[in-house]
Design a protein that fits this description.
This protein has about 325 residues and is of the alpha/beta class. It contains 13 helices and nine strands. The protein has a five-stranded parallel β-sheet. A four-stranded parallel β-sheet has the order 2-1-3-4, with helices on both faces. The longest helix is centred in the N-terminal third of the chain and has 20 residues. The structure holds phosphoric acid mono(formamide)ester and norvaline. Phosphoric acid mono(formamide)ester binds next to helix 2.
Length: about 325
């Protein structure tokens, strides 16, 4: 389908703007079909391996439910239930799983690991998050932005606020550039995105009409935007003891009512890939909020997160439809 049969998706760069657009259009169709009860099974008899070195709720659920909806089967491997990495190399694991499964999802720290898997598996390999990229999240984010704004990708303007060094901001830089959108990456000096990613994104944007701006000035950065996105301030795999210093660095970039109003756009919506620290109802969130004296939330305040402007749960649901589209397009 769309020339994607047999292809891996280890980073957003793997697919052209047309291919990404086709995948999101397919996700729209699959979402409508599921709601209407008219979904056709395209993956009957397929077997998908789900390898998770890091924890997950949405990504695992989306791959599993997407597979079940389409008639496929999954095996879930957590970090302790396979030999990969400690007793067997990534390349050997890839060659074994590739003999048994029709596709492999991998979530872990290292981008090199997933590239090695894709090189040796002989079946499509999907990146369910590494430190560098979170490409399946980009499909859901763009489906959600079009759906909730009614705007084509090339007319979207949005901000990503907070830690600009990690998978989410890096992926948005490339995805916005590919889809011709106007992205403002907003965060403190110490958490700026890597130069090579910004240069890459800008070189893509020069072809598509997109724009990628990097700024420390959130007031200027959010002007007029359709969406403000943020992410956790400390990502999976980072040591717990960085929290206090990180909060001090980035607390001025908390998404609160003031920042939402500063867009000057009454329709600006809030997005978050989740999980989010917006209240004290998690062990880690409660500890950090208490310790850093931030009672209203960390990267986003409770009032913004719970407001009608927040489309974070639509975004979470769209992980299912977009991941399903990815599997259908690459396995049929
Ligand atoms: N957004 C996201 O990837 O969520 P999980 O970590 O729960 O999979
Ligand atoms: N940057 C976050 C994204 C979680 C979906 C992390 O890597 O933990």
């Amino acid at each position: 389908m769309f020339g994607l049969t047999g292809r891996s998706f280890t980073k957003t760069l793997d697919f052209t703007p047309d291919e990404l657009g086709d995948l999101i259009a397919l996700a729209d169709d699959l979402k409508a079909a599921k709601r209407a009860g008219t979904e056709q099974l395209a993956l009957t008899g397929k077997n998908i391996a789900l390898l998770f070195e890091k924890t997950s709720t949405r990504t695992r659920a989306a791959f599993e439910v997407a597979a079940f909806d389409q008639g496929a089967h999954v095996s879930f491997f957590d970090p302790t239930s396979s030999q990969m990495g400690h007793k067997e190399s990534i390349a050997d694991t890839a060659r074994v799983l590739g003999r048994m499964y029709d596709a492999i999802q991998f979530r872990g720290k290292s981008q090199d690991d997933i590239e090695t898997l894709a090189e040796h598996a002989g079946v499509p390999v999907y990146n369910g998050l590494t430190d560098e990229w979170h490409p399946t999240q980009m499909l859901a984010d763009f489906q959600t932005m079009r759906e909730t704004s009614g705007k084509d990708f090339a007319r979207l303007s949005y901000a990503f606020v907070g830690d600009l060094r990690f998978n989410m901001a890096r992926s948005h830089a490339v995805m916005a550039a590919k889809m011709g959108s106007d992205l403002r990456l907003i965060g403190p000096q110490a958490l700026q995105p890597p130069e090579d990613v910004v240069e890459l994104a800008r070189s893509i944007a020069a072809e598509t009409g997109g724009r990628v701006t990097v700024t420390e000035d959130w007031r200027e950065g959010v002007e007029g935007v359709d969406f403000i996105h943020t992410d956790v301030w400390v990502s999976m795999g980072e040591p717990k003891d960085v929290w206090t210093d990180r909060v001090a660095l980035v607390k001025a970039y908390q998404v609160d009512g003031n920042m939402m109003r500063a867009t000057g756009n009454p329709d600006t919506k809030f997005m978050h890939c989740l999980p989010a620290f917006h209240d004290a109802n998690t062990t880690v969130g409660a500890q950090i909020m208490d310790h850093t004296d931030m009672p209203d939330g960390l990267e986003v305040t409770e009032d913004v997160f719970e407001s009608s402007r927040s489309v974070a749960f639509d975004q979470a649901e769209n992980r299912l439809h977009t991941i399903k589209a990815l599997m259908v397009a690459t396995l049929t």
